[in-house]
Write a structure and sequence with these properties.
The protein contains eleven helices and 17 strands. The chain is α/β, with parallel strands linked by helices. It has a six-stranded mixed sheet with strand order 2-1-3-8-7-6, with helices on both faces. A five-stranded mixed sheet has the order 14-13-15-16-17, with helices on one face. The protein is elongated. The structure holds adenosine-5'-triphosphate (ATP). The site of adenosine-5'-triphosphate has 22 residues, from helix 2 and helix 6.
């Protein structure tokens, strides 16, 4: 999207990331923070605990980005080399900072108690200001050089997040004028990703000036997302066009969820409370409905029963309606049939739909498909009622 936002780059440092032992949740956390703040994240790199690789990573990232945020490699041991790598990239010398060394000694309860190796955490370069770490031993660094900023934070997520919130975020706000990334989402269910793309025609590639469009296949359907660094109102046009083109397959926008939409539709149809009955899904529908944050404008979810193929228990009688879901054995091409039925006073239907996928995704998609059937059936009844 537009380049007016300051550009940012993330470095996640630690060989354990490259071995797949640690998942890079630090980068995911910072990516969300940067988007909501208004920094344009241009890329993320994961680097091993090697001084050369870290130095080259910083040198490359600092070319062409206003700010580079790094996490990890600030510990006291020989393989914590982030400070050394950045010093090398900037051509600066490390020196021990007397105040930092003193506060580390205090932290350890006296000079004699601190392992000598921890003194590495008292090292600074001339361009660095230390950032306080109240819950760990490694201070961070805020470095300004030649119009660019590099920030070092610890790898431990709790330490990093606290340092981000208390030390880094206020400095970022002081340094750059920013407008948050505006983001709007259209959510569909029941249509594949490529079919959605086809129906949107050129809207995906040319959503408008300064606007980017993306399409994502999730368990709860295909989501279409528009983003801009400009005014959020710019997104109204493409949102309206997408909703018109996708019609009934749209179940909601932005924060709306399938459970919320389905339970609201049931409430609209006069159903006050609901229980679920499912087989073949390992309780996926129960998990999704139980995790949903209820609202008074919706039918209340009272609980669910898991059934086996032989011996379907009767649904508990403590709700107005029973939503029953049965996921059948997978057929060819990753397809599975799902039977969805609803029994409530004055309402009753049985619908078969197909879903795609395997493993856990197959189970969750079956559950979301049941909720989508509820939404569609309630919508249809309402239309017929009006006609
Ligand atoms: P400290 O000195 O406070 O230990 P550090 O900067 O030395 O911090 P690392 O040694 O690199 O941090 O990592 C410490 C732990 O933090 C790792 O073992 C891992 O569990 C977690 N961690 C590191 N990097 C990440 C990351 N990118 N995402 C999630 N967790 C991480």
């Amino acid at each position: 999207v537009g380049r007016s936002a300051p550009g940012a780059f993330l470095l996640s440092i630690g060989s354990e990331l490259l071995l797949g032992e640690t998942i890079d949740t630090n980068a995911a956390f910072l990516a969300r923070e940067l988007a909501s703040l208004g920094l344009d994240l241009r890329g993320v790199s994961q680097l091993p605990d090697e001084r050369r690789a870290i130095a080259e990573g910083f040198a490359a990232a600092l070319t062409g980005h206003d700010v580079v945020l790094a996490t990890g490699g600030l510990g006291p041991t020989h393989d914590d080399l982030t400070r050394e790598g950045l010093a090398e990239a900037l051509g600066e010398e490390l020196h021990e900072d007397a105040a930092l060394a003193e506060s580390l000694r205090t932290r350890f309860g006296g000079a004699g108690r601190m392992p000598v190796s921890n003194l590495r955490q008292a090292m600074l370069i001339p361009s660095a200001q230390p950032l306080d770490n109240p819950i760990g031993s490694a201070p961070g660094w805020w470095v300004e050089r030649d119009g660019r900023t590099a920030v070092l934070m610890p790898g431990v997520p709790a330490e990093m997040q606290r340092m981000w919130a208390e030390q880094v975020l206020p400095r970022v706000r002081r340094t750059w004028q920013m407008r948050p990334l505006a983001m709007r989402t259209v959510k569909t269910f029941g249509v594949g990703e490529s079919a959605v793309a086809e129906r949107l025609g050129d809207l995906l590639e040319s959503p408008g000036d300064g606007i980017d469009a993306g399409i994502y296949a999730r368990d709860d359907g295909v989501h279409l997302r528009f983003i801009t660094w400009e005014d959020e109102a710019r997104l109204d046009g493409p949102m309206g066009r997408a909703i018109a083109l996708l019609g009934d397959d749209v179940f909601g926008t932005d924060d709306r969820t399938l459970p919320g939409v389905a339970l609201a539709a049931l409430r609209g149809a006069g159903v006050r409370s609901l229980v679920s009955l499912e087989s073949g899904t390992d309780g996926a529908l129960l998990a999704i409905l139980a995790g949903h944050e209820a609202s008074t404008a919706e039918a209340a979810y009272r609980g669910g029963v898991l059934a086996t193929d032989d011996g379907v228990p009767a649904a508990p009688p403590f709700a107005d309606a029973v939503l029953a879901l049965r996921l059948h054995a997978p057929a060819a091409l990753g397809r599975s049939r799902v039977t969805v039925s609803l029994a409530a006073p004055g309402i009753g239907w049985d619908v078969v739909v197909r879903i795609h996928g395997s493993g856990q995704q197959r189970l969750r998609r079956a559950a979301f498909a049941a909720l989508d059937v509820v939404r569609r059936e309630c919508g249809r009844t309402q239309k017929e009622g009006r006609a």
